[in-house]
Amino acid sequence: xxxxxxxxxxxxxxxxxxxxxxxxxxxxxxxxxxxxxxxxxxxxxxxxxxxxxxxxxxxxxxxxxxxxxxxxxxxxxxxxxxxxxxxxxxxxxxxxxxxxxxxxxxxxxxxxxxxxxxxxxxxxxxxxxxxxxxxxxxxxxxxxxxxxxxxxxxxxxxxxxxxxxxxxxxxxxxxxxxxxxxxxxxxxxxxxx
Length: 193
Description:
Blueprint: H1 2-20, H2 40-46, E1 53-59, E2 64-71, E3 79-83, E4 91-96, H3 114-121, E5 126-127, E6 138-139, E7 150-156, H4 174-180, E8 182-190
């Protein structure tokens, strides 16, 4: 009995150590929140089929140069990762905009409607205008999703007018919002403090 208990303890410790190093099980492989602790080496181990591409580019409206990694480039599972450091050991943010395998544990997904976001948030959301770097950015207004770490960007499927463009919170009637027929078009999780 003591030997069995010792084996269970050793297996448990090995599993915990594996999780600390960024190894994922198959059930959580495409949950984006689970990538937070990973570095570039962990990504290579967990996603050997991802055709990983790396480089450096300008972000934050061209004001911040950071290294980046792209998993599954050119596919529905494309995921962009920017790093806080050149060694690629600390993730700055993750972003995706295709309805592939990536999911958020919050339930928010690419294609989630404006109405669904309001229900999930438990409080009416606000959104910024379109046609700029943070086009359609959602403000959770201190709802349930405020502390989720998700930055969500809406995309209109309906027709838009000049009223809905620019770096400003949009003020619109419910009829105007319904006519925009908005869905989540991009999801970002920012880990930089």
